[in-house]
Each structure stands twice: as C-alpha cells, then as structure tokens.
Amino acid sequence: VQLVESGGGLVQTGGSLRLSCATSGFRFDAYTVGWFRQAPGKEPEGLSVIVHSSRSTFYADSVKGRFTMTSDSSKKTTYLQMDALKPEDTGVYYCTADAHPAPVQFAYQMDYRGKGTLVTVSS
C-alpha cells in the first residue's frame, strides 16, 4: 500500500491550496480514505474522511465549509481543496486509508498513511 501526498506549500491567510494523494496497492473504491494534520507541538487532528462504501463524506468542525474532500476512483486519488486558509491551518497534512470506516476525529489512526506534505499559512 502506498499513499503519496503533494500540493503543500506556503500561502497567505485567506488563500487556497489543493492537496492530492495518489494511492496504490489496495482497492481504492472499497476503502475509507481520509486526511489529518499535525501542527508543531500539537496532537494530530482528523480533518475529513470519505467512506466509499456508503459514498459519505465527513468533516471536522474546524474545517467544515472551508475544506472540500473529493476522490477520483479512476485515478485512485483523493484531494483536499482548502480555501480561506488561516495561520492555524499550518501543519503537516497526511493522507490515510483503511479497509473499514473510521470517524473523522480518528482519521490519524487509520491503517495506512503517507509521509505528509507541509502546509504553511502566513499571517
């Protein structure tokens, strides 16, 4: 199983970024995929999950209305569109996957994860 994130970078407050996660090694459209982040000195924070089996998407309250998670089964890729970014969104963003559904707040405990991509939001 491989998950490779890309799209991180430096952006100003109010700006946007789109993260991508290319996956391989598992049946993408049968798994749950998610995103979580970890800021320096803080606990990991689950952001969003897509449960493909139920075609459901869930978000943490902290990003609801600003972040949009989508997936493209033909490309086995999931995306996280991040708008209206704030300095507190700064952190390393990880893509995750699991054969079973997981609550968004536990996205960081899913079975597989990528190496992460750094997002820095300047004030």
Largest sheet, in brief, is:
7 strands, mixed
Overall residue-averaged pLDDT value: 97
Give the % helix. under 10%
- The gyration radius over C-alpha positions equals 13 Å
N-C termini distance: 37 Å
Structural category: mainly beta
Quickly count the helices: 0
Poorly predicted tracts of residues = none
Shape: globular
**Beta strand %:** over 45%
H-E order:
EEEEEEEEEEE
> How many extended strands?
11
Provide a short characterization of the protein structure.
The protein has no helices and 11 strands. By secondary structure, the protein is an all-beta fold. The relative contact order is 0.32.
Set out the fold topology:
Layout: E1 2-6, E2 9-12, E3 17-24, E4 32-38, E5 45-51, E6 56-59, E7 67-72, E8 77-82, E9 91-98, E10 112-113, E11 117-122
Parallel strand pairs: 2-11
Antiparallel strand pairs: 1-3, 3-8, 4-5, 4-9, 5-6, 7-8, 9-10, 9-11
Describe this entry's structure for a reader.
With 123 residues, this protein is mainly beta. The chain is built from no helices and 11 strands.
Question: Which key terms come to mind for this protein?
Answer:
123 residues; single chain; globular
